[in-house]
Amino acid sequence: MGGGFAARLMISTIDHVIASRTLQLVENISLFRSYHLKYPSHGYRWLNAKIRLDTGLVLSDPYAHKCCKAAGIKSKAKHYNYRKPGVPDRIFPNLLLSEINVDGPLQCIVSDMTAFYVKGIYYELTLYIILLPSSMITPHFISGCSTSGVRSSKGRLC
Predict the structure, then answer these.
(1) How many whole angstroms separate alpha carbon 129 and alpha carbon 53?
(2) Distance between CA atoms of 9 and 15, rounded to whole angstroms?
(3) How far apart are CA 151 and CA 33, in angstroms?
């Protein structure tokens, strides 16, 4: 008969612990609600830290999340997506060939420069492009020269 009493005592103790935990959860939920009304733009981690500073009550972040979720608390902060300044995929106009009349070689030279590091060594790479008029290029291709610089079908170097 002694085992039955111990079992009933253990069950009543477990019920008491569950009831006290449930009561503590309800109290913590109301505490989070009151802080959320004061600070609606903050989330559960910030509210938990503020409660810890003000009352000294130490709660874990997952428990604070549980309390806020049970209370239906969501931060009312303004969320935004960061965008780089400027227009994305902007196509720049061709300013070189718009008003330039190139009649011969070396009249218009365009350059571009970039800098980078490779294995700790600083390099600057500069690319020079010489703009040629189409009148100088088209007869070259029409004459039957290949673009690889070898002899053409007529036997001359291109």
Answers:
(1) 66
(2) 10
(3) 86
Tally of CB atoms within 10 A around 135? 10
Q: Tens of pLDDT along 15-42?
A: 666 778 888 999 999 999 999 999 998 9
Show Cβ contacts of residue 131 under 8 Å, excluding neighbours closer than 6 positions: 96, 97, 100, 102, 107, 108, 109, 110
Q: State the amino acid at position 17 in one-letter form.
A: V
Two structure tokens written together for 16: 């008491």
What is the largest distance, in Å, between two alpha-carbon atoms of the chain?
A: 119
Note the pTM of the prediction, 2 decimals: 0.43
Cα dihedral value 60, 66, 68, 74, nearest 10:
110
CB atoms within 10 A of CB 67: 24
User: Do the strands 121-131 and 108-118 form a parallel or antiparallel pair, or are they unpaired?
Assistant: antiparallel
Helices and strands of the chain, counted as H and E runs: 4, 2
Domain ranges of the chain: 2-71, 93-158
